[in-house]
Automatic annotation (TrEMBL):
Pathway: Cofactor biosynthesis; thiamine diphosphate biosynthesis; 4-methyl-5-(2-phosphoethyl)-thiazole from 5-(2-hydroxyethyl)-4-methylthiazole: step 1/1. GO terms for molecular function: kinase activity. Its EC number is 2.7.1.50. ATP binds at residues 115, 161. The keyword Transferase applies. Catalyzes the phosphorylation of the hydroxyl group of 4-methyl-5-beta-hydroxyethylthiazole (THZ). HAMAP family: Thz_kinase. Keywords: ATP-binding, Kinase, Magnesium, Metal-binding, Nucleotide-binding, Thiamine biosynthesis, Transferase. It catalyses: 5-(2-hydroxyethyl)-4-methylthiazole + ATP = 4-methyl-5-(2-phosphooxyethyl)-thiazole + ADP + H(+). Belongs to the Thz kinase family. Substrate binds at residues 39, 188. This is Hydroxyethylthiazole kinase. It comes from Apilactobacillus apinorum. The lineage of its organism: Bacteria, Bacillati, Bacillota, Bacilli, Lactobacillales.
Amino acid sequence: MATIKQIRDQSPIILNISNMVTPQHVADAINFIGASPIMFDDIKEAADLVNISNALVINMGSSNDTDVEKSIAAGKYANQKGIPVVIDPVAIGASQLRQDNFAKVAKEVKFDGVRGNAGELAFLADIEWNAQGIDAGEGDGDLHEIAKAVAQKFNCVSLLSGVVDVISDGQKVVEVKNGHHYFAVNVGCGDMLDGILGACLAVDNSLDSAVLAARILSIAGEIAGETTENIPYTFLNTVFDTLYQLSDAQINDLQKLE
């Protein structure tokens, strides 16, 4: 299992295909836990950048042909090199284009981690859910079964993030019950978790490391929320400060696992 100390000691390079909204937040989250972010824009440098990287994170929030081509090219190189690939199927239920683009990438690239909210992962699991754009929405599906189904479908770990984070490798399911409700009002916190997940899997590609990713961000939010009541944007800045200072001892002391 990865630790935050190992991330800081190894400083893995995390290559990101980000969406247009959150690249700065994602880069900051990766950097503040001690990893090293690279934001990837031109397909011509895919091979070179994958070659120096320790994980690839694909965010599908910007659905266009260029990003799909970049994702497939970089994903194939990452698979060949044997480094983890994380994908975020942003608002996949919202449009046929997003569904088609995800399917194109999934056909060509092997994933090591899939991170999304309940609505996004329920769509991948073919479980009925009333998703609301990028928001999880509501549904009656069992979150454990959704996470397990996605992990089994793609033979990877899945991280279903929400009020409670649910992580599965297709057999075992772990809940992380830390967190704070201000994550929901700050756009891009899920994308930040994508990057943190990439860093954790880069150090150790396992279910326990995916659980660590959820613990890191959720506990940072819990700590930040103690001093930022009614100031949700300050909350986000405090999350970054907390990520920079967070220790394994704090994580182990504060974690709420089931």
